[in-house]
Amino acid sequence: MELKDNITGLQHLGIPCRDLNAACSFYQQLGFNEIFRKDFVDEACMAGEARFMQLGTLTLELYATDMTVGQSGAIDHVALNVQDIDAAFAAVNAIGLNNTGDCIHQLPFFAHGVKFFTISGPNGEKIEFNQYL
Known about the structure:
18% helix; 2,3-Dihydroxybiphenyl 1,2-Dioxygenase, domain 1; alpha+beta; eight-stranded mixed sheet
């Protein structure tokens, strides 16, 4: 399967938040509904909380950690939905785009978890390849 055939579209936008409750309230006023929440600890042992908000086909991952900057331009990542994370990882490596040296990670988000890896775009933006399990 070619990489372009594996990517099915935008999965979510990741937005770091200083005040997670205020951010969720703001997006609820715009019509978003909370569809999932989870406390987490990442690979750097940084604890935080993530909440996923959805309006139609747009999903936002709002999350708070001690390192949140809270400034304009603070969208942290664009997550692309993939059907097969292993195939996407192999394809990205084969064409030399794994410029972060990342590996596949797993988080206990949603019913069965997610697997993902991240590369960097030409402007330093993070592109996350993400598969719901």
